[in-house]
Amino acid sequence: MDNTSTYMGPADILVVDDTPANLRLLGGMLKEQGYKPRLVPSGKLAIQAAEDVTPDLILLDIMMPEMDGYEVCRRLKENERLRKVPVIFISALNETTDKVKAFSMGGFDYVTKPFHFEEVQARVDTHLKLHRLQLELEEHNQHLEELVRQQVKEISDSQMAAIFALAKLAESRDDDTGKHLERVQVFCKMLATGLRESSPYASEIDDAFIQNIYYASPLHDIGKVGIRDNILLKPAKLTPEEFEIMKTHAIMGAQTLEAVRTRYPRNAFVNMGIAIAHYHHEKWNGSGYPEGLVGAGTPLCARIMAVADVYDALRSRRHYKPAFPHEQSRQIIMQDSGSHFDPHIVRVFDILHEEFSKVRDGMEG
């Protein structure tokens, strides 16, 4: 017979009875069978003893002064750590209603006094074995869940890596952008987190929103793969006609991702990527492109992207301009609050501007 505990050593059995003779009898018999009995003469002491050291099983009398066995069992089952410990009632009460009440309180079994120890031992053995199997099953299920989580994360990470590689391929056509995609990922996450902590948009931003904007932000300029090199890489200012062609990258990027959405219409990441690609050049006052949306008519993720994208563009050298220092870039964004940018997002940017500068300087290149 295996009487070892679910932890280490002999099974720990808490015996609760206000009659000393019953305690001695049960304690002696259990010890002879290789168990580790702990003898407790009252309900209050039983709860304290169980909380101090979690037992493997409890033998519980019902008729006790101050706190009866029903109440002891009820309180034990309220404790998250103790609720799964098997409780076997041992009582002189033999009415069906007494037994039903014992089971309704969370008891696992019921033995009527005067008891035969062979019966008590058989029930103890059975419930200890069931308890061990239950714990082993839970541990096995937790292990399986962890394996599934790891596999899902591995698949998700590989998918995100592939998507990021495609975005980098589009970005590589402009050799001045450097680590632009990596930086805007961090900027978008910083802004979204700051908006969740303090802004009218807090209720719109949860962990999934922050994760999605982090991974979807590199897709903002994916439509530039369709722009001719003589326009995309032109070292001089674009003509009005060329600029109109350049602006089409927003729609082309969204259309490219729309093809993915036909297969995954409810995928939040894909939907956010489309919104960012399509609308990140919209302006708060409606003077942006391609739709001329006004204010909150532009999706929040795209309004966040606009601030992140422009800040990084201001800090970066381009064919047509030098890199601006942080303070000058900050002032340009502050001046465009309420015209180009959502004022609430600019306010969060200003709170975090020193961190933006550190990120930009730390991810140079």
CATH topology of the largest domain: Hypothetical protein af1432
Mean pLDDT figure: 87
Strand fraction: 5-15%
Q: What is the CATH superfamily of the largest domain?
A: Hypothetical protein af1432
Structural class: alpha/beta
Number of strands: 5
Biggest sheet, spatial arrangement of strands = 2-1-3-4-5
Give a brief outline of the structure.
The protein has helices at residues 20-32, 43-52, 69-78, 96-104, 117-171, 180-197, 207-216, 229-232, 240-261, 268-279, 300-315, 326-335, 343-362, and strands at residues 12-16, 36-40, 57-60, 87-91, 109-112. The chain is of the alpha/beta class and 365 residues long. The chain folds into two domains: 12-143, Response regulator (Rossmann fold); 172-362, Hypothetical protein af1432.
Give structural notes:
There is one protein chain. With 365 residues, this protein is an alpha/beta fold. It has 2 domains: 12-143, 3-Layer(aba) Sandwich (Rossmann fold); 172-362, Orthogonal Bundle (Hypothetical protein af1432). The protein is 57% helix and 6% strand. It is built from 13 helices and 5 strands. It has helices spanning 20-32, 43-52, 69-78, 96-104, 117-171, 180-197, 207-216, 229-232, 240-261, 268-279, 300-315, 326-335, 343-362; strands spanning 12-16, 36-40, 57-60, 87-91, 109-112. Strands 2-1-3-4-5 form a 5-stranded parallel β-sheet, with helices on both faces. Strand 3, helix 3 (69-78) and strand 4 (87-91) form a beta-alpha-beta unit. Helix 6 (180-197) runs antiparallel to helix 7, helix 7 packs across helix 10 and helix 12 packs antiparallel against helix 13. Mean pLDDT is 87; it is low at 1-7.
